[in-house]
Design a protein that fits this description.
By secondary structure, the protein is α+β, with helices and mostly antiparallel strands. The chain has one helix at residues 34-43; strands at residues 2-4, 16-17, 29-31, 47-50, 63-66. A three-stranded antiparallel sheet has the order 2-1-3, covered by helices on one side.
Length: 73
């Protein structure tokens, strides 16, 4: 689990990320505990959107975290 440094607000982590080793690490990301990650996820009332299967039938790997107030959702 990671968060993007400098995105913190209101006493909790800002931008949350999953660490996929094959993608490498961005320098501004730092590891956080599952506890901190889930606390921030819950406090911000985030939704986990994922693609289980592609239109081709292959396993999907797309996901995003978004807030409930997103206007284009």
């Amino acid at each position: 689990m990671q968060k993007a440094d400098g995105t913190e607000r209101d006493g909790h982590a800002g931008v949350l990320r999953f660490d996929f080793p094959s993608n490498g690490r961005e320098q501004r990301l730092r590891g956080i505990s599952w506890e901190e990650w889930f606390r921030t996820f819950d406090e911000r009332r985030l939704n986990f959107i994922y693609q289980e299967e592609r239109s081709s039938g292959k396993q999907g790997n797309f996901f995003r975290l978004e807030g409930p107030d997103r206007e284009d959702g």
